[in-house]
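User: Mind token order:
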Amino acid sequence: MAQNINIAIVGIGNCASALIQGIHYYRDKKAEAAIGLMHWSLGGYLPGGIKVVAAYDIDRRKVGLDVHDAVFAKPNCTTEFFPNLPASGVKVIMGNIMDGVAEHMLDYSDAASFLPADLPEPDVDEVVDVLKKSGAQILVNYLPVGSEKAVRFYAECALKAGVALVNNMPVFIASDPQWAARFSEKNIPIIGDDIKSQLGATITHRMLTDLFAKRGVKLDRTYQLNTGGNTDFLNMLSRSRLASKKISKTEAVQSVTATRLDADNIHIGPSDYVPWQKDNKVCFLRMEGRVFGDVPMHLEMRLSVEDSPNSAGIVIDAIRCAKLALDRGIGGALEAPSAYFCKHPAKQFTDDEAHAMLEDFINGSSP
């Protein structure tokens, strides 16, 4: 089996930085020393075998740079846990802006906001040409929340280029029946939508909600409030960009409740931008329920994580699952990887069910 998996990345922000640093961080590790991975070898593919062969961004501080330099350029602010990346030889190409930049971000400092480059934007055919010539096998989408038109633009590029798509963002492609059918018709794998973190707010909230149901605790109401200081949180200050994000995060929790909560009794979503937090995300979680004898109980939790490395631990597995699907000739929305890795798959399962399905998929005992 070939050792390399060639990927193209759209959006060289904090998440891409964590992923690329991680690829090189684990490259010289031994399996027994590889902390932070769910799978060391996944279908024979190791984390260090992933190679970036094409990259797109719209920020003038990144376009034209070697991608391994661009991941440390402003406004990126995630932890630099592998700062001495070797030159990749891959230059960041100007992407298509469309709705990828929220207007309100221009009112903030350059260090926190995007600075769009004044360069020609590519059309679909130009992106397809780059994907084909680079040898990319998988397109990894890291566009900002609310980039509805831009995500669909790159999904179209993936279809025309014949490359798999890992959609990390809450724009519904894999979970949209029409888009999923198009990927299925062309026998191209897609994993999505909206990546979960390795151990973040959504997965923790889901597991606790499932625990309430399994232990016979009636969940009456719950909220999940998040703060952060990266461009993702700044971007999401525009509530008009949050429609898909709120649906995605809320449904991830609603899907594992014993009885679905009324809309007034569940609030899940990004809450505020705190600049000094940078890439640190803090989740405040509250669950109110009733136990034996209708006696009330309350649970409160505070979770603090570095946001981007927390998602990279999942994406590194999603990429390898997409490659396994390519190797096996499987196309369309991949049910098991999407259910385990993403907040808004086409079909929701409990995390225990999704984990078992994923292991079956990796082992080749289910499609």
Observations:
- The longest strand covers residues 280-291.
- The chain has a mean pLDDT of 95.
